[in-house]
Write a structure and sequence with these properties.
The chain is mostly beta strands and 147 residues long. Helices cover 14% and strands 47% of the residues. The chain has 2 domains: 30 residues, no CATH class; 100 residues, Sandwich (Immunoglobulin-like), CATH 2.60.40. It has a 4-stranded antiparallel sheet with strand order 4-3-6-7, with no helix packed on it.
């Protein structure tokens, strides 16, 4: 009889009303949600810019794995040797258990070497980054001898 009662309670606990009763009694917690941040097409990330002043396109997706909709504040910052050389920001609302994506063009100044593109969420604090090569400039090209 005790085994049947335990099995019956376990079965009821698996239902939505049963789970609500367990949460109400403090015997279980609603699992906390989380956020997934990703580049929409990692293989398609821009690898270089053609000129010193150029846009860098960044496409990303947010997956809200929680029980309520959320508004995410995002930013993309371009860094050259630690200095900010371009940025873009905005907000993206994502439904509970939903996905949303955005694309932004960041106007950057890329004088030499490379720049780091950093995609950030404010809350939760998450970030991703990738590198973009700057164009070769006349000042960095090898000098030949005049004939």
């Amino acid at each position: 009889m005790l085994v049947i009662l335990v099995l019956l309670c376990a079965g009821v606990a698996q239902t939505s009303p049963g789970h609500s009763v367990l949460v109400g009694l403090g015997l279980t917690q609603t699992p906390s949600g989380y956020t997934e941040l990703s580049f929409t097409s990692p293989d398609g990330l821009q690898q270089f810019v053609a000129s010193e002043q150029a846009p860098v396109t960044v496409s990303f997706a947010i997956h809200n794995v929680s029980g309520s909709s959320k508004s995410y504040q995002w930013s993309v910052v371009a860094l050259h040797n630690g200095s900010n050389v371009g940025s873009s920001s905005g907000n993206l609302s994502v439904a509970a258990q939903g996905h949303a994506s955005a694309t932004t063009n960041v106007q950057v100044t890329c004088p030499s070497g490379r720049i780091q593109m950093v995609l950030k969420l404010a809350d939760p604090a998450e970030s991703l980054n990738f590198w973009v090569a700057c164009p070769a400039t006349a000042g960095t090209a090898k000098k030949g001898s005049a004939k």
